[in-house]
Amino acid sequence: MTAVEDTTDSEATGKVPPRYACGETFVPKGRYIDPEFLQLELDRLFTQVWQPACREEEIPDPGRYCEYVIGRQSIMVVRQKDGGIKAFYNACTHRGMKVVRGTGCAVDGDLRCEFHGWRFGFDGRSSFVPSRDEFLSRSREAWSLRPVAVGTWGGWVFISMAENPPELLDWLDPLVTALAPFRLEDMRFRWRKRTRLAANYKTVIDAFIEGYHTAGTHPQTLRPTQGPRPSAEPAPPQEYVYAPYTPTTAYRNHSRFIYTARPDSGDRDSARKAQAARPEVFANSMQYNYLEVGSLVTERDYRAARQLARMEPGEVPPFVLYHQMCEELALAEGVDYPRMSMQEYFAGNGDWHVFPTLVILVEKSCVLGYRMLPDAEDPNRCVFEMFSLEHFAPGEVPETRWLEVQRWQDHDGWGELPTQDLRNIDAIHAGMHSRGFDGLWLNTAQEMSIRNQHAIADRFIFGVDDHDA
Ligand code: FES
Ligand SMILES: [Fe+2]
């Protein structure tokens, strides 16, 4: 077992050990199934990167806190009296007990450890130690909660355990610029769900950051001519002509893919283009998203789509009409709708991997999001969250909470399309364990998001930077 010796020295080595080294389009399966690799990720990656801990709306008032658990680390994020946010390691400076568990609100203006009753202000400062004169003296900081870097963007509270993290907004580049017109920070939850899956967190991430599986897993999306709820029978090879083309753009810390037409498609998908020019066909796809994804299209957009479905084909493409109608309806109903040019829309729309844990599909009205968190010990398990954020009219924001389901199969409200994804997950991860499988062999155009996330991870885990090569 020399591999263990290869990789467990405490410092990044500047070299990726052969068993974890990726090829140009190859990713060895050990990065998904080896407990040792999971520990490397937790020790060297998750301790260094910015990661979303919660949404700001989850801690609306002073004293409200939210616990974020990543591996063996628990971090509490606390709303301050001045409206700011601070984050601390969630470990009492007495004997280490977690000071908070889950979400809640501090009582009497203090956070209280339940073991011996030590108290801390919202700013983490030690405020009460019973029988303090019986302790040896130590510095004020030593009595207080240990801080963690915190920042906000897009309505998320990000934390970093790094000593000197980069500026959050620099780390997030180019999301900050590309998504500014969409004003994600003004969106609120429509719904949110959490469960556990029998797969590595990256197995799940991968299933949501490439569009190459669309025709294979979601064949109904190729058939908008069949109405808002088309057949989900597997597509025969000849139907793949209609598959969307979903190229990846890889950035230094993140990636994105968009749905588009294959550049070399010529007349091959002319039939599809002709179809899409019909208002009711385009409207069918939008209705499907509302009915069977429960996001990407809001209830208000759904009404716009139904109106569009009744319109005759004309000069203006249905896609443009749809956007106009969604905006008009939203404004009429009092929503501070994000206004942007089509150019700005295309620069931000699509599926973003906010490395390492968050995936967001961004529309003007709403965002469909996923977060995947590794288990502390088992590379074959993860936490899976799915949520929809939306721009609401003032006073219309619904009260929501995390719907927690033990097994995803126990909840029947995922919708057809997410169910198709979830049904794959166990089998993908189980298949990776096969003696007959060595690793992932990736599409050079549509799956580079997956290769890219491993390149980013190698910077942190092994000190290897592809950009240096
Ligand atoms: S461990 Fe927290 S008060 Fe003792
Ligand atoms: Fe999918």
Task: Name the descriptors.
469 residues, alpha+beta, Rieske Iron-sulfur Protein, Naphthalene 1,2-dioxygenase Alpha Subunit, Chain A, domain 1, 8-stranded mixed β-sheet, 7-stranded antiparallel β-sheet, 15 helices, 28% helix, 21% strand, disordered N terminus, binds FE2/S2 (inorganic) cluster, binds fe (ii) ion, (2Fe-2S)-binding protein
Strand content: 15-25%
Q: Which strand order does the major sheet show?
A: 13-14-15-16-17-18-12-19
Can you identify the CATH class of the largest domain? Alpha Beta
Corresponding CATH architecture of the largest domain: Alpha-Beta Complex
Show unreliable segments: 1-10
Structural domains: how many: 2
Count the E strands.
Answer: 20
Gyration radius, in Å:
24 Å
Cofactor: Fe cation
Domain Rieske: 50-159
GO molecular function, one term: oxidoreductase activity, acting on paired donors, with incorporation or reduction of molecular oxygen
Pfam family, one: Ring_hydroxyl_A
Q: How would you characterize this protein structure?
A:
With 469 residues, this protein is an alpha+beta fold. It folds into two domains: 52-165, Rieske [2Fe-2S] iron-sulphur domain (Rieske Iron-sulfur Protein); 183-468, Naphthalene 1,2-dioxygenase Alpha Subunit, Chain A, domain 1 (Alpha-Beta Complex). Helices cover 28% and strands 21% of the residues. It has an eight-stranded mixed β-sheet, with helices on one face. A seven-stranded antiparallel β-sheet has the order 2-11-10-5-4-3-6, with no helix packed on it. It has a three-stranded antiparallel β-sheet with strand order 7-8-9. Strand 17 (366-374) and strand 18 form a beta hairpin. The longest helix is centred in the C-terminal third of the chain and has 17 residues, at 416-432. It is globular and about 80 Å long. Mean pLDDT is 94; it is low at 1-10. Bound molecules: FE2/S2 (inorganic) cluster and fe (ii) ion. The site of FE2/S2 (inorganic) cluster has 9 residues, from loops. Residues 50-159 form the Rieske domain. It holds the Pfam family Rieske. This is (2Fe-2S)-binding protein. Residues 216-238 are annotated as: Disordered. InterPro entries: Rieske_2Fe-2S, Rieske_2Fe-2S_sf, Ring_hydroxy_dOase_asu_C_dom, Rng_hydr_dOase-A.
